[in-house]
Write a structure and sequence with these properties.
The chain is α+β, with helices and mostly antiparallel strands and 88 residues long. Helix content is 16%, strand content 39%. It has a single domain, classed as Conserved Hypothetical Protein Mth637, Chain: A.
Length: 88
């Protein structure tokens, strides 16, 4: 799956819109420059953020420690950086 991204100093960044408490977890679709991700976890105590990073890591085949949320820790709209990567 080709995802839109922007280069950062340490890697690349993707814009993500999460849908917590969905019936299943998956990368749902790409609309414009935003990736929509369905999460089964609720947006409580960082559970949704944790699951988001797990899904991205599994789907992209990049270790989870390379991911970090730059913006939107408590929002449905987030910017996620993948360090050490030039393209996906």
């Amino acid at each position: 799956m080709q995802l839109p991204f922007k280069k950062t100093r340490d890697g690349i960044a993707i814009q993500v819109k999460v849908r917590p408490r969905s019936s299943r977890k998956s990368i749902r679709e790409v609309i414009g420059d935003t990736v929509t991700v369905d999460l089964t976890a609720p947006p409580v105590d960082g559970a949704a953020n944790e699951q988001l990073l797990e899904i991205l890591s599994e789907e992209l085949g990049i270790r989870k420690s390379s991911f970090r949320i730059l913006k939107g820790l408590s929002s449905r709209h987030k910017v996620v950086e993948i360090r050490g990567v030039e393209k996906i």
